[in-house]
């Protein structure tokens, strides 16, 4: 009789809010690369003495207006870390669900390192800087953080090829294994051309955005 008189209880699932948070996090990860590059390009064309064939985008954090690029590093890092969390939810229990997001997270943290430890002046930027770059302690940390971050990103692409393939996106999976080669080629050519480095880094950011968006929109294989 007691059971019959007891009012039915509504069970509220926490899954929808969790999925909504994951979608927002993934959206942040998708936006990170294009926003970073757009801000970098706008500053590069606007600031006196900066040239994409001579200077790295990281050097935009130097000089009076350098705070804009520093904020760009911090915001991009936050969006990438959020995107990594969203990928972890989207890929949970499937191929690449652990290491893919973790490596993307390392890449995001490298942007915070870049913001905290600015690059060294050189190649005439900012105004009055010598042509030859003299390596400092913070400049060395900046370079090491960037190298670790982009190596993690290249490894993430290889790992994320697995869930792309599992969703039937074979072409995307192949491209995700090829893009790291192009990124590393750009970095290797940076000794001869700063622009090659910038193009390689930009390609990595844009492909991460594209792969994240594709994984967010493609249903997992059953």
UniProtKB/TrEMBL annotation:
The chain crosses the membrane at residues 21-46, 66-87, 99-119, 139-160, 181-208. InterPro entries: DUF998. Keywords: Membrane, Transmembrane, Transmembrane helix. This is DUF998 domain-containing protein. It comes from Streptomyces roseolus.
């Amino acid at each position: 009789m007691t059971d019959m008189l007891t009012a039915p209880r509504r069970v509220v699932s926490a899954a929808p809010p969790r999925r909504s948070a994951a979608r927002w996090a993934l959206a942040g990860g998708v936006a990170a690369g294009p926003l970073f590059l757009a801000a970098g390009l706008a500053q590069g064309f606007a600031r006196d003495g900066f040239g994409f064939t001579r200077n790295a985008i990281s050097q935009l954090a130097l000089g009076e207006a350098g705070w804009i690029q520093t904020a760009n590093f911090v915001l991009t890092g936050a969006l990438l870390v959020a995107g990594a969390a969203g990928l972890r939810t989207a890929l949970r229990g499937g191929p690449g669900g652990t290491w893919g997001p973790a490596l993307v997270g390392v890449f995001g943290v490298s942007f915070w390192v870049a913001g905290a430890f600015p690059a060294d002046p050189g190649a005439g930027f900012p105004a009055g800087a010598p042509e030859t770059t003299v390596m400092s302690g913070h400049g060395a940390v900046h370079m090491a953080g960037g190298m670790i971050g982009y190596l993690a990103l290249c490894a993430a692409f290889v790992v994320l090829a697995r869930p792309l393939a599992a969703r039937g996106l074979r072409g995307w999976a192949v491209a995700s294994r090829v893009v790291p080669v192009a990124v590393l080629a750009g970095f290797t050519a940076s000794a001869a051309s700063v622009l090659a480095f910038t193009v390689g880094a930009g390609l990595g950011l844009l492909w991460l955005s594209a792969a994240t968006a594709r994984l967010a929109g493609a249903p997992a294989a059953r």
